[in-house]
Specification:
The protein is of the alpha/beta class. The chain contains seven helices and 15 strands.
Length: 296
């Protein structure tokens, strides 16, 4: 299969449906050892990739199952997983308990990954963290711990070409997603500032693809979405107090989603809203009483 060239020895494996959720692009690095980053491009894509390209090591950027769905194809290889998720990594039941609270939403989430993506449970052999460097002799990639999306999310940086593998810090138009109990909007903001400090010349997004121009501007625009969301919420609270559930029905943060996944997206919308409301209360822009939240 043809791979998309990113930089010398670094290639994009295009995911099904153009890498849109629940699929994701993967990355292949040809050093002295050949490394695959993530395996969520779709089973058929990854099977064809495995037939055409040797793999020595597999690295998971984080534990979202949409990035791991075909990892079982590589279970005979060394698999590196973030140390923060060592107790749940690769187990759909454990990840479901971790990521989805509402029972109906969790049922849909399980079906999406088992039936649509063909996810099979798989273990790992090596934990890694933000102090890890993958030295492939001809290529060296440094792990960067970038929590916020999940507690275990990592990017990788290749200094010679200035390539940042940003994974689910995807810089897409939908904006940042911080939708789980462990997600943290302020950690996400800090992670965006951290990757911007590397001043990458190339950036690989798991869902958007390869960015080659104005990367700093793209990161800044992603940061601005957080402020825009604050403003949108405050505007929705002018005039009358509103409960969290009432606000969530407005879809202020995730305006469109598949109807068959409505319970899942409703939970995600509510979790992001709550983080913004907490932040706005700290800033003194919103207050809460027995009737709900209201703008000050």
């Amino acid at each position: 299969m043809d791979l998309y060239p990113v930089a010398e020895r670094i290639h994009l494996i295009p995911g099904m449906n153009q890498g849109r959720f629940p699929y994701s692009h993967a990355v292949y690095v040809e050093g002295e050892r050949r490394v695959l980053f993530d395996a969520g491009a779709g089973r058929k894509v990854m099977q064809q990739f495995l037939r055409d390209h040797p793999v020595d090591v597999v690295v998971a950027s984080h534990s979202h199952p949409g990035h791991l769905s075909a990892l079982f194809l590589f279970e005979d290889k060394p698999i590196f997983a973030p140390s923060q998720s060592k107790d749940s990594f690769g187990s759909l039941d454990a990840l479901g308990e971790r990521f989805v609270e509402d029972p109906e939403a969790r049922r849909l989430w399980h079906a999406l990954h088992r039936k649509v993506l063909g996810f099979k449970d798989v273990g790992f052999t090596h934990p890694y963290d933000g102090q890890t460097s993958l030295d492939l002799e001809t290529v060296k990639l440094d792990a960067i711990h970038t929590p916020g999306h999940t507690v275990d999310h990592h990017c990788f940086y290749e200094e010679t070409t200035g390539t940042l593998l940003a994974f689910d810090i995807d810089l897409g138009p939908a904006g940042p997603f911080y939708v789980h109990r462990e997600s943290n909007m302020e950690d996400y903001r800090a992670s965006l500032h951290l990757i911007r400090s590397y001043e990458p010349r190339l950036l690989v997004s798991s869902h958007l693809g390869v960015l080659r121009a104005d990367i700093r501007g793209a990161i800044d625009r992603f940061l601005e979405i957080l402020d825009t969301r604050d403003t949108r919420i405050v505007d929705a609270l002018h005039g009358r107090p509103r409960t969290l559930e009432d606000l969530a029905s407005d879809r202020l943060l995730i305006p469109s989603f598949p109807a068959n996944l409505a319970p899942l997206y409703r939970e995600w919308e509510t979790r992001m809203l709550k983080q913004h409301l907490d932040h706005l209360q700290e800033e003194g822009r919103v207050e809460v009483n027995g009737e709900g939240f209201r703008a000050i």
